[in-house]
């Protein structure tokens, strides 16, 4: 994306670590096996891979429901979820807080939060298409589940990140944070 700064090698390495922790904790929280994850197909994209419609000026991440056309002799299309990380907003938040060490816990929280959405959408605990008021209530449920899933993770700054969501995310559910 022109004019927006995306993740470099260091940030991509931190993202890999964050994804590992987030997937492990969300798996444990929902009691998902590796096989169960196949019913929750998702992919993660960072800023340089996003289409213009997938870039947000305010969100830290967004989930889109996507559809792959039938392939390999299959008759049906395949739905999956795309987690679109907003590198520029994540890096901007860390810069505003003045603490670069917050990036790993922030990425861990955001990835866990988005994976909770993916699991809930995939298992029809919440419909992807919903009214604004229902989406606001869902954000609160997802934050509570994410905080609980991550509660036993020992990571410097993670409690602070959860606290930042408590302060700012609840005021503007969805678009303001995740």
Characterize the biggest β-sheet.
3 strands, mixed
- Class inferred from helices and paired strands: mainly alpha
Distance between the termini: 20 Å
Strand line-up across the major sheet: 1-3-2
Low-confidence stretches: 170-178
Tell me what you see in this structure.
It is a single chain. The protein is mostly helical and about 180 residues long. It has one domain. The protein has helices at about 10-30, 35, 85-95, 105-120, 130-150, 160-170, and strands spanning about 40-45, 60-70, 80-85. The radius of gyration is 16 Å and the shape is globular.
Which features does this protein show?
6 helices, mainly alpha, 178 residues, three-stranded mixed β-sheet, single chain
Tell me briefly what this model is:
Helices cover 49% and strands 11% of the residues.
How would you summarize the topology of this molecule?
Layout: H1 9-30, H2 34-37, E1 42-45, E2 61-68, E3 78-85, H3 87-97, H4 103-122, H5 132-150, H6 158-169
Parallel strand pairs: 1-3
Antiparallel strand pairs: 2-3
Helix pairs in contact: 1-4, 1-5, 4-5, 4-6
